[in-house]
Design brief:
4-stranded antiparallel sheet
């Protein structure tokens, strides 16, 4: 018996080192001969924010990529429901939010990239 539609995909990963960044470029060749390529990089990491209690903080990134891109923000490693854009604005902060870390995962059909962490510092109101 011969299997002709075996779902195997070989992936060749190419990494280019430029200015200290490691953008990712992938090429794949499927068992059926289908090929594809993708590129994705976070070009501007989210920046740490300092706000007073009751204020909102906004985190954003810069990126380049091919294909259909998806975005998911994380708060201390946990996905934030509905936070799936290039930027994320927190609800009004409270002192308990001080020290929270925010990251974003950006994906296309072939790969995902995770940003560095951005620290949220919350100061007491009136400071």
């Amino acid at each position: 018996m011969r299997i002709t539609n075996f779902p195997v995909r070989w992936t060749l990963a190419l990494f280019m080192l430029a200015a200290g960044l490691l953008p990712a470029c992938y090429v794949y060749i499927g068992a059926d001969g289908a090929t594809g390529a993708g590129f994705l990089d976070i070009t501007q990491q989210p920046r740490s924010q300092t706000v007073t209690a009751g204020a909102r903080a906004t985190f954003s990134i810069g990126f380049v990529g091919t294909g259909t891109l998806t975005f998911q923000w994380h708060r201390n490693g946990v996905a934030v429901a509905g936070a799936n854009g290039v930027s994320y604005t927190t609800p009004p902060t409270v002192l308990a939010d001080d020290g929270t870390l925010f990251t974003i995962q950006v994906c296309n059909e072939l790969l995902c990239r995770i940003s560095s962490s951005a620290l949220l510092t919350v100061l007491p109101a009136g400071t």
